[in-house]
Write a structure and sequence with these properties.
This protein is mainly alpha-helical. It has 2 domains: 71 residues; 53 residues, Zinc/RING finger domain, C3HC4 (zinc finger) (Herpes Virus-1), CATH 3.30.40. It is rod-shaped.
């Protein structure tokens, strides 16, 4: 029985040594993986000049879209070809050109009850403006 106990104890020590060895291997693999991950991040990091170039390119694209948006904001919502030139009072929306005269006289009971196409408020007066882009 003593021999069996010594044999079991030897196996236990051997298994503990194997577990310690496996833990050390795992720790070494994790350290290697961490180093590889760090190296990969440093490789993928773009140069400052590349970042600046990308930002400038994106800024140019955004400025171009803003300018085209601004031009579309000045276009009549009815005829879609002329520049807006009428302000509605009291809501102050400026979304139509002089084609608004014919539009309102034909679509709103002879022009008596005119509503703004943006906010649907009652338009008391249509004011023609000149030089809208200046």
């Amino acid at each position: 029985m003593f021999k069996e106990a010594v044999g079991v104890e030897k196996q236990k020590l051997k298994l503990q040594d194997e577990i310690i060895a496996e833990k050390e291997k795992t720790k070494a693999l994790l350290n290697a993986l961490a180093q590889i991950t760090q190296d990969k991040k440093e490789i993928e990091k773009p140069e400052k000049g590349e970042n600046i170039a990308k930002l400038l390119e994106e800024q140019d694209k955004l400025e171009g879209s803003y300018e085209s948006e601004a031009n579309n904001d000045r276009e009549c919502i009815i005829c879609m070809k002329d520049e807006v030139s009428v302000v509605f009072y009291p809501c102050a929306h400026q979304v139509m050109c002089s084609c608004s005269d014919s539009f309102f006289s034909g679509n709103n009971n002879g022009g008596n009850k005119v509503t703004c196409p943006c906010c649907r408020s009652l338009v008391q007066q249509r004011i023609h403006i000149f030089g809208a882009t200046s």
